[in-house]
């Protein structure tokens, strides 16, 4: 694929370097390549969000990401085998500490029975959740030895297991590991044997177990969609593989792949016109892993629709952190937040985790913004020692960080506190 792409790209070597690496010699201007057209409708006056009144309804949203289920995981196998993925029957021998039953902190992914144990745990408490967000990366990390059939098999097995245990609305997005080869997501104009339709058609069939049939056309085109969760709240799932700097197909044409950001702008304008709030979900957070031109355009969109976009949710990094957005004209004024949640996989040196987001609930003047979040983990060491996996609360964000609310202004104050408070920084870093 790479040979084909490099042979056909219209970009010079310097442009390719600047686009992908971003620190090549000479200046690189992401605005040079393309710019999403924003509507002529003036940006409405910004009213800073207010925390909900005591006793206001709260919606609880389950967040799952980066499950990376390994169907060939084998307890007792080598967990440090010198390859990109270990803990498998065919892993090279040599580790004095073999893989545990429920997973391993080293170069290993999630056993199928660990995934099932998590879903059994969530099934017992699913009445607490209004809906779930599932932000992709289903297959394991054996990226050198995957076929299209392997990826579709993983998609079907994990999706069927989720359907078996969770009887709540689920809104998925696409990870970078779902394709074969990994990170390979050709835009819609690529047809024939290199087309991505083998995956998107399968996603359209699977995802419409949870999303309206009306989403099928956009999923088949580009694996993105928009749904009305309830009156006043819209959820938009974007395909961030069209920003990913390891998706080499973008070198053929970096201009708004699949027209997704222009479509996103249209969706947000329609939501603004209707008085809807919007949650955006995706796999890869905007920023360091995205092409600069894409991120710059995405920031412009968030900046324009800061009063409509109430929250953003991403995965991909396997870590627990956030991104804070600032006014593009006044860089000291925080405008929005992207929450990046933990992974189910332990890869690498992680406890399996999931998150629950508490959202300002369903009532006429709801801000639909995040009001709190709780992160849950399974202590893998304990699970392997006792053979009794337990999923428990790791921390409550407002309690752990002593935050009165979770508006962009509050997160900006938190960042300032991190700069001065060493103990708080250590708590956050852990």
Automatic annotation (TrEMBL):
Highest taxon of source:
Eukaryota
Name the UniProt record assigns to this protein: Sphingomyelin phosphodiesterase
| GO annotation, cellular component aspect | extracellular region; lipid droplet; lysosome; membrane
Bilayer-crossing regions: none
Q: What does this protein do?
A: This form is generated following cleavage by CASP7 in the extracellular milieu in response to bacterial infection. It shows increased ability to convert sphingomyelin to ceramide and promotes plasma membrane repair. Plasma membrane repair by ceramide counteracts the action of gasdermin-D (GSDMD) perforin (PRF1) pores that are formed in response to bacterial infection. In the lysosomes, converts sphingomyelin to ceramide. Plays an important role in the export of cholesterol from the intraendolysosomal membranes. Also has phospholipase C activities toward 1,2-diacylglycerolphosphocholine and 1,2-diacylglycerolphosphoglycerol. Modulates stress-induced apoptosis through the production of ceramide.
Q: Which reaction does it catalyse?
A: a 1,2-diacyl-sn-glycero-3-phosphocholine + H2O = phosphocholine + a 1,2-diacyl-sn-glycerol + H(+); 1,2-dihexadecanoyl-sn-glycero-3-phosphocholine + H2O = 1,2-dihexadecanoyl-sn-glycerol + phosphocholine + H(+); N-(octadecanoyl)-sphing-4-enine-1-phosphocholine + H2O = N-octadecanoylsphing-4-enine + phosphocholine + H(+); a sphingomyelin + H2O = phosphocholine + an N-acylsphing-4-enine + H(+)
Any Pfam family matching the protein = Metallophos
Q: Which GO biological-process labels does this protein carry?
A: ceramide biosynthetic process
- EC annotation from Swiss-Prot or TrEMBL: 3.1.4.3
Per the UniProt record, the lineage of the source organism begins with: Eukaryota, Metazoa, Chordata, Cephalochordata, Leptocardii
Spell out the coiled coil positions from the record: none
List the PANTHER family hit by this protein, alphabetically. Answer: SPHINGOMYELIN PHOSPHODIESTERASE (PTHR10340:SF34)
Which cofactors are reported in the record for this sequence? Answer: Zn(2+)
- Specify the species: Branchiostoma floridae
Gene Ontology MF terms in the entry:
hydrolase activity, acting on glycosyl bonds; metal ion binding; phosphatidylcholine phospholipase C activity; sphingomyelin phosphodiesterase activity
Domain Calcineurin-like phosphoesterase: where?
60-319
Matching entries from Gene3D superfamilies are given as: 3.60.21.10
């Amino acid at each position: 694929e790479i040979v084909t792409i490099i042979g056909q790209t219209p970009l010079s070597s310097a442009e390719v370097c600047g686009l992908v690496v971003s620190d090549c010699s000479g200046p690189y201007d992401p605005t040079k390549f393309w710019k999403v057209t924003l509507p002529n409708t003036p940006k409405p006056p910004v009213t800073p969000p207010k925390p909900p009144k005591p006793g206001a309804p709260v919606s609880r949203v389950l967040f799952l990401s980066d499950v990376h289920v390994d169907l060939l995981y084998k307890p007792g196998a080598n967990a440090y085998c010198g390859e990109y993925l270990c803990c498998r029957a065919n892993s090279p021998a040599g580790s004095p500490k073999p893989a545990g039953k429920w997973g391993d902190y080293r170069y290993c992914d999630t056993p199928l029975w660990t995934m099932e144990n998590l879903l059994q745990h969530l099934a017992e408490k699913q009445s607490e959740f209004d809906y779930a967000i599932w932000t992709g990366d289903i297959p394991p990390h054996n990226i050198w030895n995957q076929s299209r059939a392997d990826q579709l098999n993983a998609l079907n097995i994990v999706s069927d297991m989720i359907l078996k245990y969770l009887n709540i609305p689920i809104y998925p997005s696409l990870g970078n590991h779902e394709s074969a080869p990994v990170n390979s997501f050709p835009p819609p104009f690529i047809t024939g044997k290199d087309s991505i339709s083998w995956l998107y058609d399968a996603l359209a069939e699977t995802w419409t177990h949870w999303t309206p049939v009306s989403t099928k056309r956009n999923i088949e085109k580009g694996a993105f969609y928009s749904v009305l969760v309830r009156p006043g709240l819209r959820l938009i799932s974007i395909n961030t593989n069209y920003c990913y700097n390891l998706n080499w197909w973008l070198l053929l044409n970096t201009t708004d792949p699949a027209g997704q950001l222009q479509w996103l702008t249209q969706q947000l304008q329609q939501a603004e016109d209707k008085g809807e709030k919007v949650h955006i979900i995706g796999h890869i957070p905007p920023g360091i892993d995205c092409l600069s031109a894409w991120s710059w355009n995405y920031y412009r969109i968030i900046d324009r629709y800061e009063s409509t976009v109430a929250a953003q949710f991403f995965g991909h990094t396997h870590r627990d952190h956030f991104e804070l957005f600032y006014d593009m004209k006044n860089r000291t004024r925080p405008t929005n937040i992207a929450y990046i949640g933990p992974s189910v996989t332990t890869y690498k040196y992680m406890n399996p985790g999931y998150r629950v987001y508490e959202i300002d609930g369903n009532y006429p003047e709801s801000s639909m913004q995040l009001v709190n979040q709780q992160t849950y983990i399974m202590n893998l060491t304990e699970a392997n020692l006792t053979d009794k996996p337990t999923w428990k609360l790791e921390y409550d964000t407002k309690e752990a960080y002593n935050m009165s609310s979770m508006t962009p202004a509050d997160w900006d104050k938190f960042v300032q506190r991190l700069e001065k408070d060493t103990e708080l920084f250590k708590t956050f870093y852990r």
